[in-house]
Amino acid sequence: MKKTFHCLKALGFEDENTMGLAALCRDEITDPLLNEVVKYWEKTFNCCSLAGFVMMGKTGLAAATNHVPIFDGIRRFTFLAMPHIAISRDGEIGKVYREGIHKASHACGALETIVNELESGRLNLQMDIEDLEQSIIRQKILSTINYGDKPNLVEMTKLACQIISDDVETLLHTLDSSIFKYAVMTGIQIHGPMETNWIYPYNFYVVGADLPGGKNVIEVV
């Protein structure tokens, strides 16, 4: 976060003129990353959902962008969107030991559920009105993989990262780049042993007005 903050500062993003948007999993163990977004960008619009998928839609985006401050005719925001995965102290993928719980639990549980469903060959393809987010995640993933594929949790998390990154790009492409200047940071949040946290970067780029060399899009990392 410190590295990206200073990199974006050179491109005109300051905590005073920029709003943060964060789409992470609702899991409480993602809070350290959400707290870092708030620490560096202060004003932050919460876009979180199961597994970090972007569920806000056009209405949510309109609400967020309407709250973005205007400085010198430009509205600036950063959008950080990531699924997450855990690695336990014993090197177990997807397992995490939470405070107050003696046995290992799961991260990300929503993605692991789909991994297990594919492995068992039993999938509920109906839209469940009482479980909308999980239903949408399942449909997005099944629309991306080939018939018969059974990705493991690491592969599933990387796939989720790709889907989330594409969804963010699709959602934001309608914004007027002469008014909006925004930075997108997608990847995977990794929870390691001893409460360590890491980022596996995927797409880090900036879109909008006043970019060096007259470019419309530049890569940050």
TrEMBL record:
Ranges for domain Limiting CO2-inducible protein B/C beta carbonyic anhydrase come to 2-207
InterPro entries per UniProt: LCIB/C_CA (IPR040703)
Query: What is this protein called in UniProt?
Result: Limiting CO2-inducible protein B/C beta carbonyic anhydrase domain-containing protein
The domain of life is: Bacteria
Cross-referenced Pfam families? LCIB_C_CA
